[in-house]
Request: fold
Amino acid sequence: MSFYKRLAVVLAVVGVLGSFVMLFAMDVIKLDWITFMEIQPSYKPMESPRPVAARSIPIEGAAYIAGQGVPENPVVSDDFSVERGKLIFSVTCAHCHGAAGDGTGVIAGALVFPPANLTSELTQSKPDGSLFLTISNGIQGAGGQIHMPALNEDLSVRDRWDLVNYIRTLKATPAP
Ligand code: HEC
Reply:
């Protein structure tokens, strides 16, 4: 056998063995070596969240337990709460709902759905807890598009009740 033939045979054998080893290295043939740290009964990134355990209380408080109806307002509507609500409103809500809460914010015209007039009798007739849940969960249109964004991740529970207390002070200015 010539030198080059022998070299070709050796390379072919090494190549076949090498590809076989790669099958394991690339997990084409997967062996669950218990020495691999990622193979363990743990919660992996991007896995869908596990269902909430029965009788557990959500981190945002009892207001989030499903099937309880609208929560009661636990924050007394004093000057401090209303002032806080007013400040948060001017930062987080006024660009849509307008500085006076009447639905005429600067970007109102650009939205897929006009912002609610919070001074209206319709909004003012709703219970505190219902406004709280709207601020927390937002409002989705029938087609799935977002009318109002959910703000529970941006605002603390206290912030949202302060906002509710502030909205209560927004009354339509009577027509002259
Ligand atoms: C991106 C614009 C946008 C922002 C920001 C926004 N809203 Fe809204 N909001 C809307 C729209 C639009 C609606 C009406 C949606 C509908 O009826 O389908 C609405 C509805 C509401 C309602 C329901 C009124 C009712 O009669 O049920 C409340 C309460 C409310 N917003 C409060 C707030 C508060 C408080 C903030 C700030 C923390 C806020 N919104 C921020 C757009 C916005």
Residues 92-93, 96-97, 111, 113, 115-116, 118, 122-123, 126, 131, 134-135, 139, 147-149, 151, 163 surround heme C (CB under 6 Å).
